[in-house]
UniProtKB/TrEMBL annotation:
<dbReference type="InterPro" id="IPR015879">
    <property type="entry name" value="Ring_hydroxy_dOase_asu_C_dom"/>
</dbReference>
<keyword id="KW-0411">Iron-sulfur</keyword>
<dbReference type="GO" id="GO:0051213">
    <property type="term" value="F:dioxygenase activity"/>
</dbReference>
<feature type="domain" description="Rieske">
    <location>
        <begin position="70"/>
        <end position="179"/>
    </location>
</feature>
<dbReference type="Pfam" id="PF00355">
    <property type="entry name" value="Rieske"/>
</dbReference>
<dbReference type="Pfam" id="PF00848">
    <property type="entry name" value="Ring_hydroxyl_A"/>
</dbReference>
<dbReference type="InterPro" id="IPR001663">
    <property type="entry name" value="Rng_hydr_dOase-A"/>
</dbReference>
<keyword id="KW-0001">2Fe-2S</keyword>
<keyword id="KW-0560">Oxidoreductase</keyword>
<dbReference type="InterPro" id="IPR036922">
    <property type="entry name" value="Rieske_2Fe-2S_sf"/>
</dbReference>
<dbReference type="InterPro" id="IPR017941">
    <property type="entry name" value="Rieske_2Fe-2S"/>
</dbReference>
<protein>
    <submittedName>
        <fullName>Aromatic ring-hydroxylating dioxygenase subunit alpha</fullName>
        <ecNumber>1.14.13.-</ecNumber>
    </submittedName>
</protein>
<keyword id="KW-0223">Dioxygenase</keyword>
<keyword id="KW-0479">Metal-binding</keyword>
<keyword id="KW-0408">Iron</keyword>
Amino acid sequence: MNEVTDIPATTTRKVTRLADLTASQQESIRRIPAEKDAVNVPLAATRPNSIFTGTERFEAEQAKIFRRFPVPVTLSALLEEPGSIVAIEAYGMPLLVSRTRDDEIKVFVNACQHKGSKLIEDCAVHKQGRMTCPYHAWTYGIDGQLVGVARSDMFADFDKSKRGLRQLPSRVMGGIVYAQLDRSEPDYSQLSDQVAEDFTALGIADGHVYGRQTFELKANWKVVLEPFLEGYHVQRLHAASIGNLFVDAPNIVDMFGPNIRQVSGRIGYEPAMLDEDPEGNVHKLVTHAYTAFPNLVIVTSQYYTSAMILMPRDVDHTTVHYFMLTPGPATTQKAEEVFKRSYELIISVFGGEDFRAAEISQEGLSTGVPAEVVYCGLEANIVHYYEALEALLARA
Ligand code: FES
Ligand SMILES: [Fe+2]
């Protein structure tokens, strides 16, 4: 299988040019050496098995990271039109995310203020602008206000204005919707404005969700994350799919607090290629991969971008929300075919290869073997990321 390379010129889609990227992204791309000049540095690093299998560690991550800081729940691009709403199972919590008529993204608990019933049970994007509870038909506006109560004459001393949906503190950064799950005052200190600007430059904020899929994986969230932080497995695990498109060259890595930006040259990369065609698609030459705190992965491809939120559910259970973003909907049959093939390819690579590798790793790790996991120089970003997480876990 080979990556799709023949996007037709007749679509309205716009490719990302070098000049479309932020100054910081451009500067990092300029640092990528030619493939032949790349130097790999060996590394000696380990982590104990228990970081993937221990309940104590899992609970510490929940308390000090996932409930302590705002976490990504979805992409704003999923709600393209004002007046739309979607239900999400986020970290075990039923949530609603809406785009109001004033174009504001809001996050609510998906629980009716009468007796808690979920208002929306499916995962489709709804555009009707109102939500009616299936139980006793209380109706809410897209902004969370309670607007209709069946037989309201039967409720004494009842004030509708006090029974709107419970809203969670939230913010959109670079097209990612973050919410504070425990409803405390949100602390955005670990998120990066530079990364948000980069995401906007990559088209995540105004992209189109071509496809999305949810995966329930029997693996710790970090076991699922690791392949997106290292190039070591690419030519091996992906030998039959995309492995031939990449080399073992080191990434250019920048850290913004606990957020990692990696950019690498594609096979045969030479820095001079960057200036050969200023109107050309920069993602034909380089691949961006981000791990945004704490559990969001962005990976660019030539004509689409993958976004994944890895939601920890239990020590050995992770829900992955995968989104394939294109600059817009396909406008021709040919473009639709290209997007469809791209989507099938990426689902088979991530789902059938990376996620499968995570599940079979977790099976072995759960026996206690190996007692420690060892990382090489091609996996250094994993260690950098864990150091950042460990610093937060060590806080009182
Ligand atoms: S639980 Fe929603 S109207 Fe009764
Ligand atoms: Fe991979």
